[in-house]
Amino acid sequence: MKYPLSWRLLDGLEAAAAVLWPARLRRLTAWGLLAPALVLVGVLVIGLGYMLEYSLHELDLATYRLTEAYSLTNYQTILDRPVYARVLGRTLLGAVLVTAIAVALAFPYAYALVRTRSAALRKALLVALFLPFFIGQVVRAYGWLIVLGREGLVNSALAGMGLPTVDLLFTYPAVIFGLVQYMLPFAILLLVPALAAIPEDMELASESLGARWISTFRHVVIPMAKPGLIGASVVVFTLTLTDFAMPEILGGGTSDFIASAIYDSFFQISNPGLGAALSMVLVTLGSLIVAGVFLVAGTGTLGVRGAK
Amino acid sequence: MTITDFAGRRTFLKLGAAGAGALAMPGILRAQDKPSEIIVRAWGGAWGDALKEGVADPFTAATGIPVRLDFTEDNEIKPKIWAAVDQGRIPPIHVNWDTTTNATISALRGVTVDLSDLSNLDGLLPLAKPTGLDGYPLVNTYAYVYVCAYRPEAFPDGAPDSWTVMLDPKFKGRVALYDDGIGFNPIAVIAGGGTFEDIPGNMEPGYEFYRKLKENAPLLGEDADFTTWFQNGEIDLACTISVNARAARQSGIDVEWTVPKEGCKVDTDGLWVPRGLPANEEHWAREFVNFALSREAQEKWCSLLGLPPVYPGIAPPADLVGDPSYPTKPEDFARLVSVPSPVLVENQPIWFAKFNEIFQG
């Protein structure tokens, strides 16, 4: 009996795989597949180890090298200078605001994308969603400089209507605005799969049982969309917490986030010890907050099977 | 009979020297093998254009070695070079065009090559010699001034005569400084009621000036930001290097500059060669620096920048004759504020921390 070519090819591939990866190794397959990710995480952990090590050495201004002796001077400096607490507070507040606004704006967009019956509208929403990914963050920030500038689009329109111009740039709200615009597509992308996983029949069943739209939304859609909401919030929050470009460009130099302070320590004043200590504070704080979210919401909210 | 009896002592010594030279020749020749290119870290915009036209292109014409300008931020190339030297790797660039303060820090760290034997160092102005360091771990190439640049439209009564104009509520949100206070820290002390003698021991008048200035919501940025802000009408006044103001004016932006009564900070930039380069690349990197100090290169380069070179006797460009931002005579320098590099190196991190504390608070 003559088998089709594709079958023979597959048989050949299977035989080759059996030689390269014998049956006795099959129980290690999962680990093999995980290996690249584990290596990447391992490299990250090693890098963090180095950062921790650097953070425990003070800068010697006579040689611009870190001293040999271990000390907590850099952490003490962070505690002693109130500016770091203020910048960290501004960063945290920014991350919370951006997360809340971006997720709130992303939800109706994602819902419309999933539920619309119009193929044209879905395509338009998808194009609008992916288009920003082709434009880098820095370019987008510069775009806002043009749009929101003193002689930009918005102020030109205001002047055209006989209204006074306003200073929209180089303020904290301008930074938040830029970050929301940057984070919105991430939030939508993370919400879409969660909303798509909610059977439309559930909403119809709720409404057929007499629930108003708002009740259905509150008691059916929102709880079932929780994995997407948590995932989107965590991703947007952590990305905002570490963002550098938007505060730098739209903040006018006086609304820096903690990433700018880290950059300044490493590059502006050539103090890698202090930069590393600030990095460790940021990583620890971010990790604690995300861990807290998972502790309260449970990793099961992300749809992880078997998790609480 | 000895060989000296046979050939004479002098002849023997000559032959010996010639023989040693012949034996060493392959090494010397190897050291002079031309590299495929020389990479020079540079600032972009008008700065990079001037270096290309004034030094890089003529160097290539003279030696046949292409010069590539690397526009990595000066503060970002520094740790890369330091790491390369520490780890025994070849540094990413051949020549670093750097601020004297940053270059001094690299020299203190021991990553720079001594340039004392460059032939073109002879006869340069004393400004070329770095202060507080042995030899020439870097060589200063010109002086520059952090001027008070302004939009004439915003000053109908003429140029501002004092830096305190920055505190005028009329200019709220329309004043700009460098985001690390560079170029203004000593001036802030004087504008804040202190004296030059207060620096660095008592910077409080300067910090007080900054606290008042903060109420006026200044913008903090880099060279490129100032041009954009002037171009977009975002600011009326800035403390920036005269090169940026001149480049903005040359590109059609309505900007003038002045030296107010408190003075302006004058500083220098320099060139240095990192350690750890292969011998032939180091040789040609040094040749590049030497070429940059020649009369031909200094005249062209500094004229394009609009800055006074370290090569003596070069006339200023026509548009800068008599300009206070182009000091040539001792009385010109007397109007400017010069803080020695060692003082800057030691205190810059402290001033930066305080500057940050005030403006980020």
From TrEMBL, chain A:
Record-linked SUPFAM superfamilies: MetI-like
Membrane topology designation: Multi-pass membrane protein
A single cellular component GO annotation: plasma membrane
Principal location listed in the UniProt entry: membrane
Domain (ABC transmembrane type-1) ranges: 88-295
Keywords carried by this UniProt record: Cell membrane, Membrane, Transmembrane, Transmembrane helix, Transport
Residue spans crossing the bilayer: 30-52, 92-112, 124-149, 169-198, 219-241, 276-304
InterPro entries: MetI-like, MetI-like_sf
Keyword Cell membrane among record annotations: yes
Pfam families named in the record: BPD_transp_1
GO biological process: transmembrane transport
Cellular location(s): Cell membrane
Family recorded in the similarity comment: Belongs to the binding-protein-dependent transport system permease family. CysTW subfamily.
Name of the protein: Putative spermidine/putrescine transport system permease protein
Organism: Rhodovulum euryhalinum
UniProtKB/TrEMBL annotation, chain B:
Originating species: Rhodovulum euryhalinum
Listed name of the protein: Putative spermidine/putrescine transport system substrate-binding protein
SUPFAM superfamilies: Periplasmic binding protein-like II (SSF53850)
Alphabetized UniProt keyword annotations: Signal
Entry-linked InterPro entries: SBP, TAT_signal
Origin organism lineage: Bacteria, Pseudomonadati, Pseudomonadota, Alphaproteobacteria, Rhodobacterales
Keyword Coiled coil among UniProt keywords: no
Gene3D superfamilies attached to this UniProt entry: Periplasmic binding protein-like II
